[in-house]
Amino acid sequence: MRYPRRVKILLSTGNPKKLRELRAQLQGLDITWTTPAEVGGLPDVDEDQPTFRGNATKKAVAAARHAGLWSLADDSGLEVDALDGAPGVLSARFAGRHGDDAANNARLLEVLRDVPDERRGARFVCALALARPDGSLALEVEGTVRGRILHAPRGTHDFGYDPLFLFTEPGFAETGRGFAELEPHEKAAVSHRGRALRELRARWAAILDER
């Protein structure tokens, strides 16, 4: 049986900033996007897995089964060396309330208050999971980026911990600027989510052929 090339995919996140990034970076693929609001919302999912991949997969599978659609889910966060990888999968609720970026950033600054620059290394991680309409897993990819935690917020393109994350990887013209100081297209070129999405793009044709 031959399937049409264009696929309708549910973007399984209620975060409008993530939705914008996902849509912008996957332009040009044979995809029709739909959002949780357009399918009556998403099922509640307990993000209790110990890894970003585990939580992304759990969300993608639940959304696909709920809506009967292909579903793309993201789980991402910050791992700080001096905190043994925390906040990790608890990044969105580090301060106690889910999605409170200002509180999460304030708490991170507080717990790192006396930590010197050489011990403030960190990385962002983004795991993407794509599930088929029956809930079977079609793809898992992960992207990471290294940096350092600043002592105070910088930049106006705020998203999660971006104002506190100084990009330090060598070999890129914008090295030394914080993530919230990068324009969206600059950030997409180096970010954890951008890297994961480029891997998805590279494997998209094979995913279609496997359906």
Topology (SSEs and partners):
Elements: E1 7-11, H1 16-25, E2 31-34, H2 52-67, E3 70-80, H3 101-111, E4 121-131, E5 137-149, E6 165-167, H4 184-190, H5 192-210
Helix pairs in contact: 4-5
Strand percentage lies at 15-25%
| CATH class bucket | Alpha Beta
| Helical content band | 25-40%
Element-by-element helix/strand order: EHEHEHEEEHH
What best-fitting shape do the alpha-carbon axes yield? globular
Strand order of the largest sheet: 2-1-3-4-5-6
- The name of the CATH architecture is Alpha-Beta Complex
Rounded to the nearest angstrom, the distance between the terminal CA atoms is 10 Å
Radius of gyration (CA) equals 17 Å
Low-confidence stretches: none
Q: Could you tell me the mean pLDDT?
A: 89
Number of strands: 6
Going by helix content, strand content and strand pairing, the class is: alpha/beta
Number of domains: 1
Count of DSSP-assigned helices: 5
Largest sheet: 6 strands, mixed
The CATH topology assignment is Maf protein
Oligomer: single chain
Describe the structure in your own words.
The protein is α/β, with parallel strands linked by helices. It has one domain: Maf protein (Alpha-Beta Complex). The chain contains 5 helices and 6 strands. The protein has a 6-stranded mixed beta sheet with strand order 2-1-3-4-5-6. A hairpin with a 5-residue loop joins strand 4 and strand 5 (137-149). The protein is globular and about 50 Å long. It starts with 6 loop residues before the first strand and ends with a helix.
